[in-house]
């Protein structure tokens, strides 16, 4: 753990620095234990586990994209147990209605004959919601989740109902089957802190997974944190100091991704629209969270560069001509990283 002298060099008052050090030492040990606990169940996906935990520590939502069978559902269920969160799962289908997620009001009649409406909460009233194959639901149902993700409350019949704290959405998408799907609008994509691409595990990890999951008994999942611990970690992330070099790197990276202000010819010709200010906010919070996950008290330039792909890839769109030429968003982001590396 980095000492308090590192914090004082970036102009944090000494009492505040000591407070951050004590809180970080306590919470960092619990976060490491949570990462290890998830890693004992999810094999060969250390990057995915880290990026998902960073998303939760930063207080955001994540979009997990990968082919079937890569333990996306298992990851969310495991995180719910390990972090001590109330988790729910909703399978998104074309006939899913907003009320199936948010809840609805039902008319009840008392023994006296008096009638009144009672609100029955939907599955969104949880701390960790898995939206499985979110792009298979209609735009109307997708938009029902938009307010909940952004404002942590829902409006039913003109009345606001607050969601539990913390509240996180981990949504999944299958990149293979696109028939009968409804692509998420840009406004909703921007609500996700990260787009996490889930790939195949390597040979050794798949070998361990094969042996561990086909035996007589599987590894037990145990809680190592609770909701209060996660809330405390999220508050601590916002208190971690950030050096001017990191701030400038974030601004340079995000602004270079916009065709109107980019110094790169590739961006000006290939990018239809670039990341907005929310991308810079996401990079700032996620870089702090990554530092805490690694046991450091302040983020570095390496944190910004490592998190640029999952934070920017769903906040940029290529022109039709660029796609026809085989240009990918990840290729553009790699060029943006070179600008600040």
UniProtKB/TrEMBL annotation:
Gene3D superfamilies: Magnesium chelatase subunit I, C-Terminal domain (1.10.8.80), P-loop containing nucleotide triphosphate hydrolases (3.40.50.300). CDD domains: AAA (cd00009). The keyword Nucleotide-binding applies. One of its GO terms (molecular function) is ATP hydrolysis activity. The keyword Protease does not apply. Keywords: ATP-binding, Nucleotide-binding. Belongs to the MoxR family. PANTHER family: MAGNESIUM-CHELATASE SUBUNIT CHLD, MOXR FAMILY PROTEIN. This is MoxR family ATPase. It comes from Magnetospirillum aberrantis SpK.
């Amino acid at each position: 753990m980095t000492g308090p002298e590192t914090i004082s060099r970036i102009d944090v008052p000494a009492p505040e620095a000591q407070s951050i050090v004590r809180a970080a030492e306590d919470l960092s040990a619990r976060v490491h234990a949570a990462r290890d606990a998830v890693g004992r169940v999810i094999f060969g996906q250390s990057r995915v586990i880290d990026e998902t935990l960073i998303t939760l520590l930063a207080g955001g939502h994540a979009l997990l994209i990968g082919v079937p069978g890569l333990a996306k559902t298992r990851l969310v269920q495991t995180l719910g147990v390990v972090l001590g969160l109330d988790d729910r799962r909703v399978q998104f289908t074309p006939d899913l209605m907003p009320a199936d997620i948010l809840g609805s009001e039902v008319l009840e009649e008392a023994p006296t004959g008096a009638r009144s409406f009672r609100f029955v909460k939907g599955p969104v009233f949880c701390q960790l919601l898995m939206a499985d194959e979110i792009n298979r639901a209609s735009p109307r149902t997708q938009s029902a989740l938009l307010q909940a993700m952004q404002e942590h409350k829902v409006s039913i019949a003109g009345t606001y109902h607050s969601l539990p704290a913390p509240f996180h959405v981990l949504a999944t998408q299958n990149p293979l089957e696109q028939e009968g799907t409804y692509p998420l609008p840009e406004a909703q994509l921007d609500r996700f802190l990260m787009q996490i691409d889930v790939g195949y595990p390597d040979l050794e990890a798949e070998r361990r997974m094969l042996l561990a999951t086909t035996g007589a008994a599987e590894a037990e999942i145990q809680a190592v944190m609770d909701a209060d611990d996660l809330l405390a970690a999220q508050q601590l992330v916002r208190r971690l100091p950030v050096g001017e070099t990191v701030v400038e790197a974030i601004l340079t990276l995000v602004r270079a991704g916009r065709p109107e202000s980019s110094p790169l010819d590739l961006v000006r010709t290939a990018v239809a629209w670039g990341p907005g200010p929310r991308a810079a906010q996401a990079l700032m919070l996620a870089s702090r969270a990554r530092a805490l996950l690694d046991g450091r008290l302040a983020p570095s330039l390496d944190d910004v560069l490592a998190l640029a792909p999952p934070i920017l890839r769903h906040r940029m769109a290529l022109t039709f001509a660029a796609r026809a030429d085989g240009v990918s968003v990840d290729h553009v982001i790699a060029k943006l990283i070179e600008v600040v590396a």
